[in-house]
Design goal:
- InterPro entries: GCIP-like (IPR026907), GCIP-like_N (IPR049317), GCIP_C (IPR049318).
- This is Cyclin-D1-binding protein 1.
- By secondary structure, the protein is mainly α.
- 70% of the residues lie in helices and 0% in strands.
Length: 359
């Protein structure tokens, strides 16, 4: 009669399960800088676009599967043994390394804009997986929000991979659309503040309600109505008018650039599309700077500097677009009209801030 199999003795060299998870989280964090700054692998083979996207999708599915396996294993008792934990950690690490390896095969000549989107998606997956592992060793054996939220983040990041644009023109349109939305939001916030004639109206109302029965004097409340720095003077309001027009012109510029790329952009003109996206990417942050500069207390010189920076970016974006293939007839285009509109706004801002410059 055969004797029963004897269980393998535990490996004394293995760390406890939670210690292994902590170590894995650190290893995953160490991979992030290489993804952020890593160059594409050089190869003599012709790039196979279909094979690349298939491999990237498969790698994302693998990561998602390993995230599920790890979460289930560490969300209940008993926790996995050190040997089982080692296997889980090795599989997670291998899945993450695999998707990074696929990303590194994407060449720059397919478009810097598209490569940035693939890199961003890869970074999200690696970072979210590191957060999941950290959550599991901090809150083991729990199906808590602290564990489920990072798990859902990994799952969402992996599900996003098939939605990445497949060519540089589609990537450019994706980025430009996001920029249009950001500038639209900033412009609407500026308009709303001006319509209310009080940028801090909501904040002040909350303070007045909360302090109605207290013994705190109005002069002690930051931003209370007798603080004149919380309101626009007549001069401020006059200066805001061309600033709003400039923000509106920024939105119009981005919309027209996006439309030109959509109608005339060619997938094989990757370098020109990248140039258009690079300079257009600077418009939204510049509009944000202008929007911040008009909040009280207003410094006219700061408004003038912010406006000049935005105008410089807008004119450069329009000139690059005009010189590219997306504007087949630059002499008959909308670009000169927008340049004139931008110049008109800037000239008015200069007039209203000239005293600040001379003083």
């Amino acid at each position: 009669m055969e004797s029963a199999a004897v269980p393998a003795a535990p490996d004394p060299t293995l760390h406890p399960p939670l210690e292994q998870l902590r170590h894995l989280a650190g290893e995953l964090r160490e991979l992030l800088p290489g993804v952020r700054v890593g160059e594409a692998q050089e190869t003599t083979k012709e790039f196979d676009r279909e094979a690349f996207w298939r491999r990237l999708n498969e790698a994302a599915v693998t990561v998602s599967r390993e995230a599920t396996t790890l979460t289930v294993a560490f969300s209940r008792l008993p926790l996995p043994s050190p040997q089982e934990t080692q296997r889980f950690c090795e599989q997670v690490h291998a899945a993450i390394k695999a998707i990074i390896a696929v990303y590194s095969l994407f060449p720059k000549d397919q478009g810097i804009t598209l490569r940035k989107l693939v890199r961003s998606a890869t970074l999200d997956i690696v970072d979210d997986m590191a957060q999941l592992v950290e959550a599991l060793y901090i809150n083991p054996a729990q199906s808590s929000p602290e564990n489920l939220i990072p798990y859902n983040s990994v799952w969402d990041a992996c599900q996003h991979v098939p939605q990445i644009p497949r060519d540089n023109k589609a990537a450019a349109l994706s980025v430009l659309t996001k920029s249009v939305d950001l500038v639209k939001d900033a412009h609407e916030e500026m308009e709303q503040a001006v319509e209310e004639c009080d940028p801090y109206c909501g904040l002040l109302n909350d303070i007045e309600e909360d302090g109605s029965d207290s013994h705190v004097g109005e002069e002690d409340i930051l931003g209370c109505p007798n603080n004149r720095d919380s309101y626009w003077s007549e001069e401020d309001q006059e200066l805001i008018i061309p600033c709003l027009a400039l923000a509106r012109a920024s939105k119009a510029c981005l919309k027209k650039i996006r439309l030109s790329v959509a109608e005339n952009g060619k997938k094989d003109q990757v370098a020109q599309l990248d140039d258009i996206v690079d300079i257009s990417d600077e418009i939204s942050p510049s509009v944000d700077d202008l929007a911040l500069s008009i909040y009280p207390p207003v410094c006219p010189l700061t408004v003038r500097i912010s406006s000049a920076k935005l105008v410089s970016v807008l004119k450069k974006a329009l000139e690059i677009t005009k010189a590219s293939h997306v504007t087949p007839q630059p002499e008959d285009s909308w670009i000169p009209l927008l340049i004139n509109a931008v110049d008109h706004c800037m000239n008015r801002i200069k007039e209203l801030t000239q005293n600040e410059v001379e003083s």
